[in-house]
Amino acid sequence: QHYFIQSNLSMGRKRKKTNIPDPGELKTVSKTFARGTPQDLKSIQDKKLKREMMVQEKKNAQAIKSAALKQLLMPEERGCLEAEEGERTLKFKQSDIVKHVDVASARKHFSLALPHHGPYKCAYSRNGRKLLIGGQKGHVATFDWQNGQLGCEFHVKESIRDAVWLHNRDYIAVAQKKYAYIYDSTGTELHRLQNHLHPVHLDYLPYHWLLVSTGATGFLKYTDVSVGKLVVELKTRLGQPHSMTHNPWNSVVHLGHSNGTVTMWSPTMKDPLVKMLCHHGPVTAAAVDSTGRHMVTCGMDKQLKVWDVRTYKESLSYFSHRPGSHLAISQTGLLAVSMGGQVQVWKDAFKVKQKAPYMTHLVEGAVIDGLDFANFEDVLGLGHSKGFTSLLIPGAGEANFDALELNPFENKRQKQETEVKMLLNKIPAELISLEAESIHQIKEEVEEKPLDDKELLLKFKMKGRNSAKKRFLRREKHIHDERRQKIRAAMDSTRTEEGETDQPRTILDRFKSKET
Question: At what angle do helices 47-72 and 23-33 cross, to 10 degrees?
Answer without folding.
Answer: 110
